[in-house]
Specification:
Blueprint: E1 5-7, E2 10-12, H1 14-28, H2 32-40, H3 43-55, E3 62-66, H4 72-78, E4 83-88, H5 91-104, E5 110-113, E6 126-132, H6 141-151, E7 152-163, H7 171-191, H8 194-206, H9 210-219, E8 223-230, E9 235-241
Parallel strand pairs: 3-4, 3-6, 4-5, 6-7
Antiparallel strand pairs: 1-2, 7-9, 8-9
Helix pairs in contact: 1-8, 2-7, 7-8
Length: 243
């Protein structure tokens, strides 16, 4: 019998988690970016700009943006000349991204429905692998990290930005109150979906602490790993290299 995995604060089968996470993102896809602005006060845009500066995408580089759904990271990297493949397990999220790209006149992106745990790309395909606010929703994180390592070229780099646990005294209590009490209510008002945003808040709390996730990245085979906390670790940029 399969081991149980976390879906927010619930313990469910891996198959059920995959199905329920898919339902969450299908539900919120159309208003996902509006909710990001509302929940972060627009700060997610600054975090994403900072993230892309760390990745340093170069003209002609092949980049896989996993869980890239609505295109926020891909658009920024494409503007720097990178050849970006946007991958997501959820076609509804990809459809939103494709529509946004068409509205903005952004050409040259590749879009692909992919499971982060079982990518269809050959070994050593990409110069960089990015995943932003997506890996905590993966059913088996270690498998996704192993796949990221596999599809990168030697010398390739892994960059992940994810919510984590803030270390700032006092702010942690405020942040916990916000994420557990206010975030679901905002989801109900703006996206007409309180339950999905309750899961998203719970999934943040269940995600490994920064040092534990960095250890998982090293276990997947990455070297020279690094963590850059933002807001004391409420958000963190993780990186590693395939050497």
């Amino acid at each position: 019998m399969s081991d149980k995995v976390s879906f927010g604060y619930e313990q469910v089968s891996p198959e059920e988690k995959t199905e329920r996470v898919g339902a969450v993102f299908s539900s919120v896809a159309a208003r996902y970016d509006i909710m990001n602005d509302a929940m972060s006060g627009g700060m997610h845009r600054l975090w994403k700009d900072r993230f892309v500066r760390r990745v340093k995408p170069q003209p002609g580089e092949a980049v896989l943006d996993m869980a890239g759904g609505t295109g926020d990271i891909a658009f920024r990297m494409a503007a720097r000349g990178a050849e970006v493949t946007v991958a997501d397990i959820n076609q509804d999220m990809l459809d939103v991204g494709i529509e946004r790209a068409m509205e903005r006149g952004i050409d040259g992106l590749s879009w692909s429905c992919q499971n982060a745990e079982e990518l269809t790309y050959p070994r050593g395909t990409f110069d960089a692998y990015t995943i932003v606010f997506g890996i905590r929703n993966v059913t088996h994180i270690a498998r996704a990290l192993a796949e990221a390592h596999r599809v990168l070229k030697h010398g390739g780099r892994f960059y992940c930005m994810e919510f984590s646990t803030t270390q700032w005294p006092g702010f942690k209590q405020v942040y916990d109150l916000y994420s557990h009490r206010l975030m679901p209510k905002m989801g109900k008002v703006i996206a007409q979906d309180e339950d999905s945003y309750r899961y998203l808040a719970e999934s943040i709390r269940r995600f490994p602490k920064m040092e534990d996730f960095e250890a998982m990245i090293r276990q997947a085979g990455f070297a020279n790993t690094r963590v850059e906390p933002i807001l004391g670790g409420a958000v963190a940029i993780h990186s590693g290299w395939k050497i």
